[in-house]
Amino acid sequence: MSQESKDPKIPKFPSLFPAKAEPSSPFYAMLQSAPQDYLLQQDEQHESPLDYPVYYFFYGTLTAPSQLKRIIDLADEPKLRKAEIFGYTIANWGDYPALINVRQGQVVTGYAYLIRSKEEAQKLSYYETNAYTVADCWIYFRDEEEPKEVGGKVFMYAGDAQALLEQRFDRKLWRRQMGGKLG
């Protein structure tokens, strides 16, 4: 027996669990008692930003203010904020650091900067190449300024993260992928 949603914007799905199913774990029981649209709801507190400005978290070459200034064509050196993100680790992708998902408790320290426009974000993406993809993250600042935490963006490795963790790296393939972007 499925519950019907009264909100016309919420799609009508059958119940996640049959009515006569026996819960085999507390998690199963919790999901069975959850509202029908539970899995479709976004966490309001950690909702990712859709517009600019938006903080980007940096952990590699972009932590150097002079490098960031050059890449996004700023008049002055940017003021970076010391920050960290949880649930990630850094692996080596050739000569470059690559952020990948890992166990929940791990932390990556770096810096965050408020990217003010889509054009600045595009310049960053061009610099990072297709080897990285932009992902949502939750940034925790480690300074005395506000905000103390915020939803933001980060560049994550777009390739085989497991290969990086196992230190299986093909330098010839990496050089071909990087093309003229080396140095």
UniProtKB/TrEMBL annotation:
All copies of domain Gamma-glutamylcyclotransferase AIG2-like, residue ranges: 56-175
Annotated CDD domains: GGCT_like
Any coiled-coil regions, as ranges: none
Magnesium keyword on record: no
InterPro entries hit by this protein: AIG2-like (IPR045038), AIG2-like_dom (IPR009288), GGCT-like (IPR013024), GGCT-like_sf (IPR036568)
Keyword annotations from UniProtKB, A to Z: Transferase
GO molecular function: transferase activity
One Pfam family here: GGACT
Protein family per UniProt: Belongs to the gamma-glutamylcyclotransferase family.
Name the UniProt record assigns to this protein: Putative gamma-glutamylcyclotransferase
Organism name: Aspergillus tanneri
